[in-house]
Amino acid sequence: MLFAYYIHALNPFLVQFGPGLGVRWYGLAYVAAFVVGIALYKRLARRGYSDLQPEAVTDFIVWGAIFGVVLGGRLGYMLFYDWDAFRADPFLIFRLWDGGMASHGGIAGLSLYTLWYARAYHVSWRNLCDNLVVVGPLGLLFGRVANFINGELYGRAATVPWAIQFPKELYTAPAEADAALRAASAIDPNWTTISQVEQAARVSPALREALAGILTPRHPSQLYEAALEGALLFCLLWLLRTRVRLPNGVLTGVFFIAYAGVRIIGELFREPDAPLTGPFTRGQFLSLFLVLIGAACLVFAWLRPSWPPRWRQASSRSGALRRAP
After folding, report:
1. How confident is the model over 284-307, as pLDDT tens digits?
2. pLDDT per residue as tens digits for the range 174-223
3. How far is CA 250 from the centre of its chain?
């Protein structure tokens, strides 16, 4: 080995009060996503891109986060990735502090919530969705960074110089786990479980040195996905929202198709966390349906066009000018 790989040793807690208790980066990522999402959605509303008034945005985002993102994402994870455990103990769905959220489930939950909200408050569902998908990728960005801090959803084996060794691999690799436990007990006899080894690796250079010869170097796929699903999608959709005159529903269609594309690419570097469906990972397979939904959104948007207030007002002004003598 010409160089040493970085062994993941980040603490999932910003502040820890006791075993398993404290302020987690994962939770802060969701808070940051909601706060930034509210601020940007209000900005779009003030600039005339939204049928929703700025003062109504906070309630819409907060309840959407609870019923759409959190419950939808958690239920999607249990159904798509951990069905056996969910069937054995349905109350696992409430253990949000254990992590386990599915972005496809969050998308589905948020879509259903916006449909209900649009009907209840008599606003355009397509317009609500268009503005949500513009700010939504920032939530994906923060969430993927939090996945990296947690050392979960790591990538496939790699030999690139920036590959990282993740101690969480030990939970699913029996041979490596046995070797790690032997090495850990030789350093400190009190380290007798994988959980203790994972925690000790954050503070013990000697243990990290021992694990360097055991753990598999892997792609930091969480960061790849943060860049693709988060930063890239946000920049694309923000530019389309603020620079191009588009009917309601087009941005939603673009989001579904673009998200599916970058998710399929990202999954090429991510270790599958569920059985394959043919040649596809679970994330890739579910993304194929998003392409179909996105295409339907685009077709409907062009066949039955409606416009955000900004463009309706611009059309009215230009029509008045043309009619003036």
Report:
1. 999 999 999 999 999 999 999 999
2. 999 999 999 999 999 999 999 999 999 999 999 999 999 999 999 999 99
3. 22
313: amino acid identity, one letter: Q
What letter would DSSP give residue 249?
T
Domain annotation covers residue 3? no
Nearest residue to 189 via CA among 211, 207, 166, 177 = 207
SS3 for 14?
Answer: strand
CA distance 247 to 127: 9
Which DSSP string corresponds to 51-79? SS-HHHHHHHHHHIIIIIIIHHHHHHHHH
Q: How far is CA 48 from CA 60, 131, 296, 314, in A?
A: 17, 11, 26, 10
In Å, how far are 29, 117, 137, 240, 246 from 318, measured between CA atoms?
Answer: 44, 32, 34, 22, 17
Q: Are residues 207 and 262 in the same domain?
A: no
At 212, the amino acid letter reads: A
Q: Rounded to 10 degrees, what is the CA torsion of 99, 191, 85, 167?
A: 50
Q: Which of 27, 23, 4 is nearest to 13 (CA)?
A: 23
Residue type (1 letter), 32: A
Residue from 307, 306, 226, 290 nearest 254 by CA: 290
Main-chain phi, psi angles of 15, to 5 degrees: -135, 130
Q: What total of structural domains would you count in the chain?
A: 2
Same domain, 266 and 231: yes
Dist. CA 18–CA 21, nearest whole Å:
5
Which residue stretches of the chain have pLDDT < 50? 1-2, 318-325
Distance separating alpha carbons of residues 24 and 32, to the nearest angstrom: 12
Q: Provide the domain limits for residue 55.
A: 12-156+221-320
pTM: 0.89
